[in-house]
Amino acid sequence: MKKLTKLLCAATLIGAALNASAWEPSGDVKVIVAYKAGSGTDTGARVLASMAEKYIGKTLIINNMPGADGKIGWTALVQAKGDGQTIGFINLPTFTTLATLPNAPFKTSDVIPVCNHLTETGVVAVKADSPYKTLKDLVDAAKKNPNIRASTNGVKASNHTAAQLLAASADFKYKAIPYGGTADQLLALRQNEVDFTCAKVADVAQLIKGDTPELRVLGVFSENRLEALPNVPTLGECGYYNKWYGSARGIVVPKGTPKEVVDFYVDAFKKTAEDPAVIEAHKKAGLELDFMDDKAFGNLISEQETFCKDVVTNLYK
Questions:
Q1: Hey, what domains does the chain have and what are their CATH numbers?
Q2: pLDDT digits (tens, 9 = 90+) for 232-268
Q3: Helix or strand run (H / E) with residue 128
């Protein structure tokens, strides 16, 4: 009996020691967002971060570092210490597009995936009072006028690529006008600086609602109509790009971050994503919560890198 008691005590002490040595953040966690406050990425990051604190046990502080189509923030992210005190959001395919450019300041291998947060479908939008009532109206006008203008969230950024996919598949030319991010490109459309834009469902969700909506969605980059926009045709229905295209937004840490740190965040964000209150908060915000663990998100990053090399690169030749 004494021997059994000693064994139980030893097991308890070992368990306590293991729990005591388990990694957790030592202070506030910096969360790098490579776009300005109020952007789609920023909005989603703040919803998730505020509710993840319950499972992380520390305050998550959003650090907006906009500029250069995301390069400023992501360069700072890959250069941060891999100590778990700095994490960040990346946007796909923009991150992988920039990473595959000649003389890129970072590579996909410079980050370690933690989890995917959102997956958002692309849309084509115009002002609510635009003369273009349908996607065909817009395409027909663009074929007659190659100077038609579209705002983007940066050169070769995700929404620029969406406009390129539309133009290439519909065989028209246009002028892409880059802005600092999605919030700015949508403001440009609302202020009549451009004729159309491509963004994500969540980006335009609040601008197409109510008695006096500001924008109108003409088409979605999806193989099937979206539940949120049942009356909006897919591009494929209209005879244009017939595959899904959009953006994934997920969390990564700098290369060199220990596995125990990565595992801590994977577990914490998984619990966050499964929390009913978190699920409801995302629904209210019009955000498509799509949790993937580090392995699945890593596979997605690899797939997007291939997509950028094989498809996106050809769009800009």
A1: 27-119+247-315 (3.40.190.150), 121-220 (3.40.190.10)
A2: 999 999 999 999 999 999 999 999 999 999 999 999 9
A3: none
